[in-house]
Amino acid sequence: MTPGTLVLLGFPPSARLRDELRAAGHRLLAPDPRDAPESGHRYVAGAALQIGAADPRTPLVLVAHGLAGPLMPALGGAQRAAHRLVGGYVFVDAELPAPAGDWPDAPCGYLATSQGDPRLDAARLRAWRTAETEEEGLAHALRELIGSL
């Protein structure tokens, strides 16, 4: 899939990752809500407002790290409510959301940067695309995984 905009959610600041993705031609948006992902719906609301204000190109690919992972269904729902197409979801070393009836509404992938990540097996059981990489190869592996969605 070719995303219009990659939306990076819950990532620690990494100029290298962002620089490498931009150099590969990706449009990026990295919402930074006042509330942390642990705040749940407040994080979703803040991220959704920032995504809307940026007027991103669609389809969006929502890419979550860490505790932003379980919020992906709500973030995707907020984008659908705003009439923005979500073309895929990617989890990078992220916690997984509970299975839900009407989600996922687009292809999903899981990218692990450490060996033996049990969430990788859980993603495989859900028939998601999966990949593993070292931290140094994160941008390349992320581009490859998104391309396979």
Automatic annotation (TrEMBL):
InterPro entries: AB_hydrolase_fold (IPR029058). This is Alpha/beta hydrolase. It comes from Actinocorallia aurantiaca.
